[in-house]
């Protein structure tokens, strides 16, 4: 333990009493006595304290009496009514005069001798007398206080003497003067609980954890309990998550028992600290962290963002979790984000968020300007904590292939009322061809219209934009161009107003929170005075596009509004020309344009005001118009050095004589690829850069270019190749120091390997120790001079019953690392417990989703008896202490075990206990949490037996580093005996070969790959597995040629017979013997043999089979020492069937040599109920004829025959019984003929018709209901009706018996059922059933309910309409349309009349009713005949006549026209 005291200890009264020196106590006593007088005598100071009670006691009282439990501890925390900390109170400090009362006489005399005192005496003689009187008063007060202390001391001694004389009055129950406080700490920190207990007799104090008594001996090094001077403490060393609990301290004596409680909360980091990254910087003052108002804030940044890569246009968020302890309610730390050490503020590009425990920075739209080193800074009252990581932004894909990347950092260098000078940085990527120049675009703020400012590209990275409107604001962007095209536009600049700088300065207001706006004015200007000459005129910038002048105003002050005229003159002449002839400028800065490139000019400036124009300034030196800035030279030597597995540090020599250097671009290339990629897309202005995002294990070369406004330099020379891998560094400190055994003069220590070994194997460890006396550690001493390779060491020459601390350092080839934190304080006393000590060096290997392997070493301290077993405990990492459970119920004999049935993704911790006959010993240290996850790329050990029967175990690792090694073990002990096993490693593969496999080789074999993330695997060679492998080895030594398939037979074309088998693998030296009935047959006319050694197919073919070929066929194989054979027996029915099939295939072959049927004649029925007879033919040619026959009579070829795509068809549109018969097709040409026959008689014709009926039935529509004037009709439509179709109508599932009232019929494609004069008895379900020889098809309809009512009502309506139509009055005929008749003639017309009842007849002339008279006779006879007679017509009879008939069912009329002519008129008309 260090000598510093924790902050919580400093608030305890016993600390002030017990740990101060005598001198300090004396000073404090004097100060407190004077403070008491000062506090009581100053009412104003008490008023200013705002209720902050500060009690003071005499120093003697504090030194002799126990602290009073009622005394309030001084605190500067502000709490609410629920005692929740909500902030802190700022104490009001007294003036120097109040503190002066605490000085002693000697100190006052010394002060009086100082120069300051002498000065005050001379300056303030009047106040001297007052100070002297105050000094006398203070001395008197101090004497009174001392006398009072002496009196109190005598009273106290008297009381103590009386108590000793009367013990009964002294005895009282325990009382907690100071109770233990609760603590919240981080993992691996130490915590100490204190309490002060009074009582007589002295109470016995016991500490409990979750109501379980704590025994320090049961957990050596974990708990330390001390009791001294009524002060009791419990120290918990190396807190882990299991130490989170409620702790109780119980004090008990004869008068009673009392307990006090305190909680300990152990916090765990959300993510492990990356040991590769440097430790976070901490704000440290000369005296350590600032402790303000009684609080020391501890800030931890965890869950950090790493080096990040983004692309232009994307959104990126950077975030860290910030833990601040103590966590004060409503306390707000200052959270700031920096990019390249420049403070960021919220904007449309950057959004910042603080959630109370997490700081987030969101880059809404990445651009290359966002690239850089980002730093999070969290500031509290006690200091600040920072974390940094680099963000790289890659270019977005070019809109045109080969176009350059976008420029960056567009900004305005200078702005005036008529021009703005825009500058930018060149991009790192030129698209494969050099950049020809840049286009500058402007856009007025408030609009979206971009205007290109230059017609031709400019190469210089600065450009003056003119043609602006004074007073308006603009934004700018830049695009690069090469021969392939134009880049994407850059990010727009910040808005800038086109106005005179003097006006802009006047518009800027300087505001302060207490005065509003500050207006700075000069003295009243003098009128009528012409200003003098401007001063210090110089050319500040000159390019081929513009020249910038600057000067100082004239020296006189108080001049009236001074403005300036600029004049120019070609060098060598004295002809001065005013540049700004119209309006003088107000600011002492001016840019000139439209100067001739290559010419030299001189410039001067005149001042002017209302009084006139002053004298010109001194002219400048001749300035030649042109780009004075040169492209920088190439950087010097480039040196890359290893950094991490994915980064390289690149340093280079700066460009010589480079002016206005913007920065450098770095490019990298994999050796041999000749493809260069930019390492940064934003220039860096240093000569050292870390290139991230590289491929581990690849070799890279680098080159650098310098950039300024004039352009980009040539590349530097390529660097030497460097391999990307982690640099070697000294290892991190070991941790977890524990004691394994302790005797009188020595202790055995164990520790854990560093989390970061520095990229190289650890070569050893060095142990230091120091003695701790009364809590004060001494000097460190070396325990070993020579490094120890094991993580356990016995430290000798210690002193018995002395306390020691230890520290360990690890060493590798890079050097010795920093020492570990000091261990807990251990007492050197001999262990005498009967049970074993703790196992140590727990290691976890072979982590998978559901299992892992745990290794450990047996305890050094065996106890009274040897260790005879081990128990392994497991729990989830975030589970409470009570969650520990045993993995094994029976003690393990070995020092390793495989733990199964883990939950995927869950984190676990483990511990081990050893046992002997006396019992189970101490638990080991708990392992680090490990998640049950199989890492990507994990592979397992594979067992292999080669062709020579050699058994080997093989392991491959894909994520090896150059320093990785394969370590093979048997039963998790490294294999060193090569007599039975030999190891071979090549590249990423390693194997162990068994020299003489036997029972001695049974065990668990494992392989660990060093310098990886734990790549390991194991293989258990059991007795059964060894037996299996030996059998395979025997087969390989005495091999049998494996067969993919045994001997089989198949038929080929022409009916040929093929015997064949396929071997797995045979060499070119393999041979085959063909045996039939124990006789070897050979190649000849009957047998044809073939052996394809590439595929392993062995075959023998025969043209045909004869009865003599019945028997057994055998293929005998031989390939070196490997042999095999396979046989096939062909006898009896098997042989006969094969012979018959062979003959059939042979005939089929010859049939197919000419025209033949591929598919024989068949029929099908189309959806239109058309029957098609078809067959598919092959091997046809033009001369081939296809003849159709029916019942041996040839069918004439007409439109019903067809032949398309090798298919012959015959269509029968409306099939009937006459189409039944035997159909035959004959194919014929000079190569032969083939015949196909189809029998469509009897059953064949029935099957066809049933299919036709089925098609008809399926085409039927749902049964529908309609009404007629006779009754109700049910009907359905079919696509085609055939007379042979059998249909049955059903009523209520019974066939209907037809009668005159119920009939069925067919009209076209409509099938109907007519119900005449329906009644309610006809209601019910009706169905029509189509018969198709199978299940048939039924259509149903329900004629009941509303359906019947609607149909019946419609029937009644139609019936009434029919009756009305039959009986209504009608004019049946007999009347002409026109009658032309000669005057004097008789006219007689008759028409037929019908209707029931007999209609009434009315005659009309010209729509007027006429009656019968002598001239016009009207008659209606027999109720049927109506006549119209005019005896002698005259011209007055001409007109339109109508007959109107009417009865109760209707009315009808008939019209005709009568035209009467005179004969003479007719003759004259003809002439």
Written description of the protein model:
The protein contains 15 helices and 104 strands. By secondary structure, the protein is mainly beta. Strands 49, 50, 51, 53, 54 and 55 form a six-stranded antiparallel β-sheet that branches. Strands 4-11-10-6-7 form a five-stranded mixed β-sheet, with no helix packed on it. The chain has a five-stranded mixed β-sheet with strand order 13-20-19-15-16, with no helix packed on it. The chain is extended, with a radius of gyration of 58 Å.
The main pleated sheet reads as: 6 strands, antiparallel
Low-confidence stretches: 1-79, 84-121, 270-293, 509-524
Mean pLDDT: 82
> What is the assembly state of the chains in this entry?
single chain
**Helix and strand composition category:** mainly beta
* Euclidean distance between termini CA atoms: 158 Å
The count of strands amounts to 104
Strand residues, percent = 35-45%
Radius of gyration: 58 Å
Helix content: 10-25%
Q: How many H/I helices?
A: 15
User: How would you sum up the global shape?
Assistant: extended
Please describe the structure with a list of short key phrases separated by commas or semicolons.
six-stranded antiparallel sheet; 1471 residues; 15 helices; mainly beta; single chain; 13% helix
Summarize the structure.
It contains 15 helices and 104 strands. By secondary structure, it is mainly β.
